[in-house]
Structures are given as structure tokens and as C-alpha cells.
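Question thread 4412

I'm putting together a teaching handout and wanted feedback from people who do this every day. The idea is simple: show students a protein as raw sequence, then show them the C-alpha cells that encode its fold, then repeat with a second protein so they can compare. Below is the first pair exactly as I plan to print it.
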Amino acid sequence: MTQQLALKIDVDTYRGTREGVPRLVGTLQHHNAQATFFFSLGPDHTGRAIKRVFRPGFLGKVSRTSVLEHYGIKTLLYGTLLPAPDIGRKCAEIMRGVRDAGFETGIHCYDHIRWQDYVAGKGEAWTRREMQRAVDRYTEIFGEAPHAHAAAGWQTNRHALRLTQRMGFDYSSDTRGTHPFIPTWQAEIIACPQLPTTLPTLDELMNRDGITLDNIAQHILQLTATPSASGRTRDTLLEEPLAIRLGEPTTLAKSLVMA
């Protein structure tokens, strides 16, 4: 049985959108591969992530993944010493180009840092405002309502889950897990299926347990060598979604597509 990877590309930053996305589109087209691009649509406040330095594991990740090389010094200062560029305003043409090239697109967030760092503890009004900003900006850019949502950092709350249904998304990929599911909250069924990320992201694997740029693609393929016991299928969404997070890990993504 042929195993297939569903590539889920979470685009976090202005630089990732402006430089990384066109390169990935070209690479995917060259190898006749498909992917879904989930865009951050508002201000790039990446510099404010400096507060995460006190979180367990953050410094280890930084040391393994060459954050300065992948993101660039300007990105790491956006929202602090440098003004935050509005990704949706500045990169709308690039985003439309992804759709026009035949790739599926969806919402990642409006403000990545704000969502990832705060949504877990926020209420309904805050959550609705953030999601509505993203929906409005997506609609402004693409001329149509979004049909898919992938929460930044896999962070969500019960209000966001309800809103994925009320806002009419066909599916969401807000979680990590092993198989598709219909969310429930205290016996409340959320009628928007979740297609979780089932594989590690490339930046989580890089420079760990002997994994390098030279062998990371083969490692990912080995993780999918055995068919899933859940027997899950996802129509055209296929099996085993792998998340690529842009910063700008375009070389890593290219090595996976070419494998």
C-alpha cells in the first residue's frame, strides 16, 4: 500500500511569507506535490517571543535549529525594536498566488504571537475578536471565506473550537494527535472535524538523535513506513499530516519533497 504525506505548511512570519512561500511553491510544483498553506494574516510580532526564553525547552530548541539563520535578525526584532510589518497587507499578492497555483489555503491566525501565548487563558469575546480578524483579512485577500483553520502553536480553547463550527470551516487542524476526530467539550459536540498533525515538525527533529539536513527526509519517511493501526483516511487530505513551520525552513521542506 502506498503511503502518502499531507504537507501542512504553517506560515508564521513576514519573511517566511515573502521569501519562503514562493520557494516552497516552486519546489512543490517541480515535484508535482500538493500542500496546504495556512497563513498568518496580521502583524508579525515575532520579536515578542523573547518572553519564551523562560519556558522549559525553549533554549534547547533555539540552540538546535539556528533560529537566527532561519528567521533573520530583523524578524527577531519585529514588534520590539522594529515595527511589526502587516503580513496580510504586504504579502496579499503572494498569498493569492499560492491559491492560483492550485494549492489549498487556510487561516493560521491573525497575530501569531498573541494567539499562541494567550489564547489558552482567554474568554469568548477575546477569542471571537481574534478569529474574526483573521476571517475578515482572509476574505479581503482572497475574495472568499476561509474553509480551513490551523491554530498557531496548536493552541486553542473551547471558545475557538465552537467558533470553528459557527464560522463554517469545513475542517480544522488545531491539534496534535493520531487520527481525525470530532471534538467534544463537556458532552457538547463541535461539528467541525479536527485533522491533527500526526508527525513531528522538521524543526523539532533537526539536530536531535543524529538527525541532520542530510537524513531528515528519510527519517520522516521511516516514521510512516508502517500503516496506521487506526485505518484513517482523509479523502484528498490523505494520511499523516506533517507540519512545516515557516520562519524559512525551505531547504528542509525541499529535501522532504524530493525524497
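The second pair follows. I'd like the answer to focus on this one:
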Amino acid sequence: MDQTEKRLHANLMMIVDFVSRQLPGELFDRLSGPESPPETDHERFVLIARRIFGLGLPPWLVEQRFAATREALADLVPAKVAALEERDIAHFLSVDAALRNRAKVLAVRHNARVVQRLASEHGDLNRFAAVTIAQNGNEVRGQEALMQALQRELQFIGPISAARIAQELGVDVMVPHRSVLRFLHRLGAGGTDGRGAQELSERVAPEAWGPRRRGRLGAVLLAFATGRWSSVAVCNGEPNCGACPVAPDCPRNGVSGPRDEHSSRASGSQTTGSTAPLSAER
């Protein structure tokens, strides 16, 4: 590890400590990816469908209506959803309690057919993931190839949803939220695209965090970069550099204004940041 890498690692660990002192570790355990990934393709497909139906909607509404949505779509059994005909879709769209959206239900049907095909070719989605990763040599390159394949094969699935699905397949990856990538760019970390973020997380996420260490690092950085779950936001859309524990060593790429434009670091105050959900991210 050269000096630049050591400095980057030290800065990220300072941020981890900063966030961890303000938020409970149990929260990041939950946000690092599932501790026990789903065991069947039916369970995995239910999560994929829920993610699609939830796009652009508040979590409370999805929680309130997803059970009725699942019931109206044959319990979201992939084989049954794949076989839906136009009259079945018309019936679904007439169910008042469901998350009714024609484009989404068509995407879910398409994805059910993909799940069926991949299961036929590989045995199940877990095996598909393992084969895709193995075919691409380096583990990080293989994981990035898996996420690209998920985006290519599945409709309404972008880089964030693809990373979440990978986690649900038992693959430890950092979710590439745009706010995290923006923060890494400001810090000069180099992980400003999907693959760069995965390579960075592989290098710096503490081994002591266990098999979901990269997912946990992503969750910590998301809290720091957005204020989601608390008032911890420092490096959000309008960064409060004065409150940042690594400000003296940060190149502030893409940030206008003087380095000391905020005085809150000296006074010990903290920014409240933004708690708006990143609903456009998939």
C-alpha cells in the first residue's frame, strides 16, 4: 500500500468512526445486505418485484399495498407470473388495493420469464451469479459483470437495484449510490464509477466487518453523503466542509468556494443535511 492509498484508507476510517459514533451499529448491519440471503428463486423474485413496484413510491405505501399486489399476481411465483396473459393483467389493474401500474407489471412479467430462463440454464439465480463471477477472472470484475448482466437482463433495474439484487444473491458489493460516488470524487478516491467503487471497497473495507464488509462501507458512506437515517450528513449536495473530519486532507474536487467557508468544525456544530430520499435512483 503506497502513501496515497494509506492516506485514503485513513481518511475513510475517520469517516467510518465519525458516522459510527452517531448511528447505531445495528442499523449498518441491517443495511449491509441480508445476513441470510433468500434460499429460493421464488423468494428472490418476490424481492425483485417489490423493488420494481416500489420505484418512485414512498416506502409506507409499498408496505401497505405490497401484500395485495403479491396476492393479485399469483403470489409472485415466477412460473405463474411468466404465464400472465392480457386478461390477467387487466384483472390486476382493477384491484384497488394493489400497486397498480401497467408498465411495472409488464416489467415484472418480463423479469419472471428471465428468472425462469436463467434457472433453466444454470439451476437457479445463485448458480447464475456464481458462474458469471467465475467467468470474469478477478472477483471484483466478476461482481461488476454480474451487476451489468442483471441490468441487461432485467427490466426497470438500474445499478443500485442490481447491487441490491447481488447482495440478495449472497454477493458482497457496495451499492453505488450517486451520492456516494460524488463524495468519493470530492475526496479524490478514484471510485467514481461502478467498477471503481467496487475496487475501492474491496481494498479499504475492514476485514473485521466480516462477509458483508463492502455493503457496510457503502451504507456508512451513504449516511455521511446524504444524511439518510439521521442528521449526520456532511458531504451532501451542499457540503459542510467545516464539519468534515477529513477536510484538511480533502482536495474537494468539484466543490466551489473557499476551503474554510463553514466555521462549524471549529465550533463543534454539525449540519442537519438533507433527508430527502433518492427516489430517482434504481
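Top answer:
Good format. For the second protein you could add a caption like this: The CA atoms of residues 84 and 109 lie 7 Å apart. Confidence is low (pLDDT under 50) at residues 258-280.
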